[in-house]
Amino acid sequence: MSLEQDLLVKPLTARVNLAQPQDLKAYEASGGYVALRTAVKDLKPQEVQSKVKEANLRGRGGAGFPTGVKWSLVPMGPDSGAKYVVCNADEMEPGTFKDRLLMEGAPHQLVEAMIVTAFAVGACTGYIFLRGEYVVAAERLNKALAEARAAGLLGKNILGSGWDYDCFVHTGAGRYICGEETALINSLEGRRANPRAKPPFPQISGLWGRPTVVNNVESLCNVPAILVNGSEWFRGLSQGKSKDGGTKLYGVSGRAKRTGVYELPIGTSAREILEDHGGGMKDGYKLKCWLPGGASTDFLMPEHLDLAMDFDTIGQAGSRMGTGLLTVVDDKQNMVSVVRNLEEFFARESCGWCTPCRDGLPWSVKILMALERGQGRAEDIAQLERLTRYLGPGRTFCAHAPGAMEPLQSALKFFRSEFEAGVAKTPTEAGVAKTPVAA
Length: 439
Description:
alpha/beta, 11% strand
């Protein structure tokens, strides 16, 4: 299959080359920047918004909010003032590594997407907020930006249109909370990375108080292909597996034979992702349960493998598709240890802004550590269940703590006996676990 044909089936990864990504000349030879030229010369910003909306592209960062709808909330017109486009490339969700593939393997694809998105909302400046550990991605993105700038695709009077726009890479300092869009904006402004109250939403008041669109790397990288091939083509990429449009970067991590990232029609079943593409579990291991999209999603069981991996289907099953990268747990792993490891991460990454998250997450870790040592108390399990409610949706300032509670609440639901096994048989054995119990 030629690259041109491959781009019609796998528009996100057909150009990816981790060893030697395309430079500007090679990218343009493969059809790159056609979308930008089409948008600037033949379309109005609202027409670009409409095409993305008609394509039914839902955000690939985890929430699944329709991308075109998000753009349409930005004030337009000659008096709308300065506006910004921010790419959320702070990929710190445990078990997630898809955006790195795109940035390292096809940097010009993201650069073009940023420019087209900026045109669609009338932005003057863009920022790629990049996870600080992604050093190679930063180097390649900066090189791609420099090439685009030198070719007149960035900067003043882009392609003779009279429209000015420039884009920059901003590397973060390594905080998971920066994946939350308003915490990211605070960090970008040089402030502490605490989430902001919403409303107002960033589309109205974001970076420096100006209208701002924040989109995930994978979400943005779909945009050029939609303009080139059309909204109907994009919807058809799902092959009827989902009402959502496009392909999706799915992945597998854990004790599977072929861990990695695979571009497949959105709505592909979890079984196909794990068994056909991931090769199934390694010899000697059986699937115990799995996370559908990063650490902040609820565990699902082997009987859920035939579900379509799309936002609505996984939501109806009691979890979230999140980033769409499966993390498999094998039959030799203890669920108390698995969950304790996750909760330690979330406790460490709390910004400390609100009390339930700041104090509740370390409390859950303390209880889990006691159960892991076999020194838990009978009331500890009930306390963990209470924490999943006290730290649930609507009880905290942002979604960090509710996300942290998802693996805990589902592990308690499906594997309660493993938690009960950590309760000490005598009060003396439980002496080191002096966790107070709330009334």
